[in-house]
Design a protein that fits this description.
The chain has helices spanning 3-27, 60-67, 128-135, 164-175, 178-183, 191-203, and strands at residues 33-37, 50-54, 72-82, 89-103, 108-115, 118-125, 139-140, 150-160, 209-214, 218-219. It has 220 residues and is an alpha+beta fold.
Length: 220
Amino acid sequence: MPRHGATFLALVCLAAAAPAAGTASLAAQSRPALDLALPSGASLSTDGPLVRAAHVMDDAQMRDLLRNGFPARLHYRVELWTVGGWFNDLDRSAEWDVIVRYDPLDRNYRVARIVGDRVTPLGQFTQYADAQTAVEQPFRAPIAARRGKRSYYNVALDVETLSLTELDEVERWLRGELRPAVRGQRNPVTPVTRGLRTLFVRLIGGERRHYEVRSATFRT
């Protein structure tokens, strides 16, 4: 078997065995949660809610994936809904990302927040726990309710450790095919190969994890 193929199979086997090894430690950790805090008083019409993800990166599997070059992406979406008679209406929404990746050369974790076209570095950390703390910093959503409305916020968070696009690049690296990736050329993807890649994503724990929370109804 070619060396790259053997490496690929080894990654799959090790990742598939990882959940069993970490089960006991995960049970002792706090439950992942998505927290939302409304502004107080008159600030409801000028400020957005404070949003915080807690313990969503606690598991050892995610830490191992980061250490092996798979970045983590936390995608937030905050929706502002107005309460009507028969139906509630989506007034507006805001989205942002927090990206975490491990740099093997510097041996540190880099955390950044991306809002639109603006990238805000949140720090570089040698310890995984410190990177977690940066990820869990509360962030005020760039959205606010209109005056004279009964409204509520709905916040959704998707945590991914790997996407199919990133997996394409990993597979090319394993095969030693760096040049097509540099030129931007991509090999055709058949339903069979896409299915196999999706299976690989799930084996290494890279499936999307979804969290959601809704605020109480309020009037501005």
